[in-house]
Write a structure and sequence with these properties.
By secondary structure, the chain is of the alpha/beta class. It folds into 2 domains: 8-145 and 202-262, 3-Layer(aba) Sandwich (Rossmann fold); 147-197, N-terminal domain of TfIIb (Single Sheet). The chain contains 7 helices and 13 strands. The strands form 2 sheets. The protein has an 8-stranded mixed β-sheet with strand order 11-12-5-4-1-2-3-13, with helices on both faces. Strands 6, 7, 8, 9 and 10 form a 5-stranded antiparallel β-sheet that branches. The protein starts with 7 loop residues before the first helix and ends in an 11-residue tail after the last strand. Residues 251-273 have low confidence and may be disordered.
Length: 273
């Protein structure tokens, strides 16, 4: 089970992403907490996608920028009201060089795990640190790995069953490299079978802490959700906050320059399910 292209998830999910994830529980709390951490801004979201968080942050008056590997996802953002006002760079968030710094850089909803290797995740966090102003913050939202859901390295479960559709999740786990190769299989009587990839390389909270430390960041906070609930051994997700020291005039060096910057463009048509 090898690595996957940076744009794989976004390209496959763009047409149905808002239908599946556009109104996640806790979105309002996430926006509130991120806005508080951002201060006056500006803000950079890694894996901006269709703008679930970026658009309400911009509506609060913050200057928001984004990076995403998937052009179809960004086209969905562009098609929304005020979506064309947010500058987005198309490129791999593990290889990021922008010509400015931010008060807040964040990567939400497990998106850090879309990167296929520990090396890529280390480079991503180093790049985030390099784009923080002194005193700026880097925020990661991710799940806490639960290896108990795998039986002999595999898992099959039904996540939704209705008269209109059946959704299955089928996964294989490689604990050596901490990768899960999975597919969301959607079966409907009208459209037949559709497979959506969900390949991840997970990391434990302590491992993310070490990556941030290697990038010169200080661990500031960890909560079990966007309402800033206490994090403990029973927590299933974490929101971790790291800070670039205020007196730090030298950031970690990022990788190569990211892809082209997409300024506002007309939306394109994308087929749905």
């Amino acid at each position: 089970m090898g690595e996957w292209p940076a744009a794989e998830y976004g390209d496959a999910w763009a047409a149905v992403y808002d239908e599946r994830h556009g109104d996640l529980p806790g979105t309002g709390d996430a926006v509130e907490t991120l806005a508080r951490l951002a201060g006056a801004g500006p803000v950079l979201e890694l894996g901006i996608g269709t703008g679930r968080l970026a658009l309400p942050l911009a509506a609060r008056g913050l200057e928001v920028h984004g990076v995403d590997a998937s052009a179809p996802m960004v086209d969905r953002l562009r098609a929304k009201p005020r979506g064309d006002s947010i500058p987005v760079t198309i490129g791999d968030m593990a290889s990021l060089t922008l010509d400015r710094t931010f008060s807040l850089v964040f990567v939400a909803f497990n998106t850090l795990f879309n990167l296929p290797s520990q090396e890529a995740q280390v480079r991503c966090i180093a790049g985030a640190a390099a784009h923080l102003a002194p005193g700026g913050r880097f925020v990661v939202e991710a799940f806490v790995p639960d290896l108990g859901r795998f039986d002999r390295g595999q898992a099959v479960r039904a996540t939704d069953v209705t008269e209109a559709h059946v959704v299955l999740e089928i996964a294989r786990h490689d604990p050596v490299v901490q990768r899960v190769h999975s597919a969301r299989v959607v079966v409907t009587p009208t459209d037949g079978i559709r497979m959506l990839p969900v390949n991840i390389r997970y990391a434990w909270p302590a491992e993310v802490d070490l990556m941030a430390r290697l990038a010169g960041l200080e661990h500031e906070e960890r909560w079990s959700g966007w309402q800033r609930q206490p994090f403990d051994e029973s927590s299933r997700q974490h929101v971790s906050v790291y800070r670039r020291p205020a007196g730090d005039g030298h950031a970690a060096q990022p990788g190569v320059r990211a892809g082209r910057s997409r300024r506002p463009v007309p939306p394109i048509a994308t087929e749905g399910l």
